[in-house]
UniProtKB/TrEMBL annotation:
Residues 69-386 form the ArsA/GET3 Anion-transporting ATPase-like domain. It catalyses: ATP + H2O = ADP + phosphate + H(+). GO terms for biological process: tail-anchored membrane protein insertion into ER membrane. This is ATPase ARSA1-like. Pfam families: ArsA_ATPase (PF02374).
Amino acid sequence: MAALLGHILKNQKNSFLLRNITTTLDTISSSSLHQTPFIVQTLSQVRLVGNVAESVCGFDEMVEGKDRKYYMLGGKGGVGKTSCAASLAVKFANHGHPTMVVSTDPAHSLSDSFAQDLTGGNLVPVEGVNSPLYALEINPEKSMDEFRAAGQKYGGGGVKSLMESMGLGAVANQLGDLKLEELLNTPPPGTDEIIAISKVMQFLESQEYSMFSRIVFDTAPTGHTLRLLSLPDFLDGSIGKLIKMKMKLGSIFKSLLGKEQPQNDPLDKLEKLKERVAKIQDLFQNPDTTEFIIVTIPTVMAISESSRLHASLKKQSVPVKRLVINQILPPTSDCKFCSMKIKDQQRAIETIHNDSELAGLRLCKAPLVDMEIRGVPALKFMGEMLWR
Ligand SMILES: Nc1ncnc2c1ncn2[C@@H]1O[C@H](COP(=O)(O)OP(=O)(O)OP(=O)(O)O)[C@@H](O)[C@H]1O
């Protein structure tokens, strides 16, 4: 085996490839799982790497500084968001950043990507990296149920009966006009994700999690993400009305009973939710802390969708600088079908240069490899090719 590897290394002229192979082999030598198949597959990838060698994604800039930064990877279903997000998280951790990678996608694939059980809604440590790396799969439906339960207790009928008992039935009826119960029971699409993200933000605010300097989100497919982004204003509006109501209530309460309205009342809870929603909006829109990376594949359909996604993100003031083109085929092939496919991909990539939404973005390219990208060594390998 060593002789074979030595031969391959001697015959590689590109130092990047050498570096890549060497680091990959270092990892492989320390990995006991699936050793042989991974090495065999790795050798065949050497040929594929050359195709994307010109891609420089500006990883130096991404890794710079100790302040916390958020990276959100989004795009059409199945383009490789999870693989790209997980490989970025591994690379950050290997460059000294305590990192957290979070999935809020109902169809989680982080566990598959890391080849590790990450279900359960808690932070799970990922082994095999140089700095702490933790993964978290948040179940948006479960978070939504918790929110609904809280809503039922505090926001829906609870508010109404509390006010009725205070002789404020008329105000309660006005509150009813806001259809709060309906909002809690049949919330607009995307609410589940915002609740999930708000849960992550709560985690991150605590001292225990202050060590994380890079947070990578594997977001849900395009449509959900867009709906999610338009949600804060909606919630903000509804909750804003409730808060005004609360202020009115406060003075009525005082004049009726001669004392301040009790703290920790239902509307306080809603006010807190509003604050969290505002924080999430800031998280998405702050260019100093956040970057949304669009992931696509070289097909005209995926690229058109990415273009629309960028237009919507821009409209929502979400900072976007990079476009990942994943699963690029090698430049040439003897197989007729593959040659046709390669030409097709090249034509699709050309459309990026002529697309007013995408042309200005930095292109980060990853080859299509002939293996599933699973486990830390494979993710590290992918990261070496993509994030540089
Ligand atoms: N560059 C690549 N080369 C080969 N296989 C890849 C590549 N990128 C991703 N894959 C494979 O494609 C499949 C889908 O990848 P992944 O789960 O990362 O996509 P996704 O966009 O997150 O999907 P979903 O939208 O369903 O969550 C996985 O089996 C993964 O190993």
